[in-house]
Amino acid sequence: SSHGPVFATLPEASQLARQPEGLVVRLPREKPLPKPKPMTRWEKFAKEKGLDAKKKRSRMVWDETSKDWVPRWGHNSIKHNQEKMNWLVEVNEDRGDNPYEDPFAKQKAIEKLSQAKQKVREMRNQLEGVGKKMPAGISGGPELGSIKRGTINLRESLARAQKSSASSGKFDSDTL
């Protein structure tokens, strides 16, 4: 064959490429291997207890009220449908409900509080993953620069102080 030792002619008149021996060069990686991500509190706990990884949840769930499959989240989700159905809230004074308080505003405030608590938990997880403890009054992780850290600190410290006061921040100015 006129192509040299790389190509060889087979009996069926087709060609086969052969790799020359001794010419293999192993190149190093351009970048180093990525460092493993630190484990979250839940991952550490699950590993200690021998729990399996959470299975992927389906997007669609069965809604008993509409007798149909609806999305778990997003537009027309089961949560939004339940909120639409909850247009009347019974006031039970024996339970300690205030008849002059807006139950929908109260529910919104409870949701906002739980979201804030979840955010604090997420920040604590990030800091613990890096190997640091979260000091009181400090917000943001190490990836946050010092650009907006002061304002965020001030707002969160104010929120903590308002929640810890007897009036729950009712009379404090909310200008930040």
Automatic annotation (TrEMBL):
<keyword id="KW-0539">Nucleus</keyword>
<dbReference type="InterPro" id="IPR007023">
    <property type="entry name" value="Ribosom_reg"/>
</dbReference>
<comment type="similarity">
    <text>Belongs to the RRS1 family.</text>
</comment>
<dbReference type="GO" id="GO:0005634">
    <property type="term" value="C:nucleus"/>
</dbReference>
<dbReference type="Pfam" id="PF04939">
    <property type="entry name" value="RRS1"/>
</dbReference>
<keyword id="KW-0690">Ribosome biogenesis</keyword>
<dbReference type="GO" id="GO:0042254">
    <property type="term" value="P:ribosome biogenesis"/>
</dbReference>
<protein>
    <recommendedName>
        <fullName>Ribosome biogenesis regulatory protein</fullName>
    </recommendedName>
</protein>
<feature type="region of interest" description="Disordered">
    <location>
        <begin position="126"/>
        <end position="149"/>
    </location>
</feature>
<comment type="function">
    <text>Involved in ribosomal large subunit assembly.</text>
</comment>
